[in-house]
Amino acid sequence: MNVVLPQRDDRVVVRGPDGERTEHLGTRSTYLYQLAAVRAHLRDGAPFPTGADDAVRTAELIDAVYSAAGFPARPSISR
Q1: Domain with 47 in it
Q2: Main-chain dihedrals φ then ψ at residue 63, nearest 5 degrees
Q3: CA distance 44 to 56
Q4: Are the C-beta atoms of residues 11 and 22 closer than 8 Å to each other?
Q5: How far is CA 6 from CA 12, 26, 34, 35, 58, in A?
Q6: Largest pairwise CA distance in the chain
Q7: If residue 21 lies in a helix (H) or strand (E), which one and from where to where?
Q8: Count of beta carbons in the 10 Å neighbourhood of residue 5
Q9: Is 77 domain-assigned?
Q10: Among 17, 28, 41, 63, which residue has the least CB neighbours within 10 Å?
């Protein structure tokens, strides 16, 4: 799988005690999923699939990955 450009290779190999299988996740760009969510929100009032809490948790996980890899923390931006 190409995690940066999933539209080029959408295969995920799942290995387990019963063997191995290949799954295909779809060849749409991740940006198209984001655009579809914004469009549904603006046109239909649909809620976003994730909220601010999810964004904060994702940022915390990224910081933890940086730390585990021995990289310095990303700089904070104050507003």
Answers
A1: 11-68
A2: -60, -40
A3: 26
A4: yes
A5: 10, 8, 14, 16, 20
A6: 52
A7: strand 19-24
A8: 12
A9: no
A10: 17
